[in-house]
Amino acid sequence: xxxxxxxxxxxxxxxxxxxxxxxxxxxxxxxxxxxxxxxxxxxxxxxxxxxxxxxxxxxxxxxxxxxxxxxxxxxxxxxxxxxxxxxxxxxxxxxxxxxxxxxx
Length: 104
Prior knowledge:
Elements: H1 2-10, H2 22-33, H3 64-71, H4 73-90, H5 96-103
């Protein structure tokens, strides 16, 4: 859940500009590309209780980002699309507001 939550937080018009900070870029990079607990491709038995008594049961065979993309792609891709759209709106050459600024 960490990857979609971080992306949803940053995919807001008020918070996206904070990504100009190298420190926040490093946090995003760490959240997206953290490998997490290793789990063999054979998988683990389903969890019997929450929270899990053993953190090893929460592992993934390919890392957290790929796990989210496989099991819940919309929760990860929608915020990324929103971030791209917001970034394009901030591009002075693409946004209607930016075009107005260029004309004056």
